[in-house]
Amino acid sequence: xxxxxxxxxxxxxxxxxxxxxxxxxxxxxxxxxxxxxxxxxxxxxxxxxxxxxxxxxxxxxxxxxxxxxxxxxxxxxxxxxxxxxxxxxxxxxxxxxxxxxxxxxxxxxxxxxxxxxxxxxxxxxxxxxxxxxxxxxxxxxxxxxxxxxxxxxxxxxxxxxxxxxxxxxxxxxxxxxxxxxxxxxxxxxxxxxxxxxxxxxxxxxxxxxxxxxxxxxxxxxxxxxxxxxxxxxxxxxxxxxxxxxxx
Length: 247
Description:
This protein is α/β, with parallel strands linked by helices. Helices cover 40% and strands 17% of the residues.
């Protein structure tokens, strides 16, 4: 049997100025694509974060009322490491996010507020690489982001947003999905990888509850391994991959 060689990944577009990353939980971006975000902010591009939840159900040993503020603080510190100062939370409930018009409306409102050309989210499909089952929160938010990128440009969908002063924004040119099992594009992670490691390490309360391994050893091993594997399809340079949906 002839072995099929995966296609090489194309470089991500770079003719844009503003991006908006929308994910379900604190740490989603740090596991998925913060090395790319570091390289973009280094180049003078603007990136804002919007999180559907505060990750309050993510640590078994902390009750949600205690966990939510901890994870919010960790997320803000984590974002700052890669040059992101705007971090917003939509306050949907962690673990039980529902795909539907309420979620689409909240994300469309965020798109109208920030007016990005590039929107980033996390894997919205049922599995990770066809092997591990994805969480309902990731699926719901990822699908809603893909839909809301279009909703934001149509004044007759969620007209109440216009009444609130959020004019339609039809300027989204791409939605980029991190963690996809069918990536099409990549960003060189060489310069951003160390900051990606430091960014994920800011989620220390979460990581220490997740693994008994030394946090830095765990984080560096995970992120560097993913970057090396992606780099096999990107000129053997460490890289972060995305599935790019033009709009």
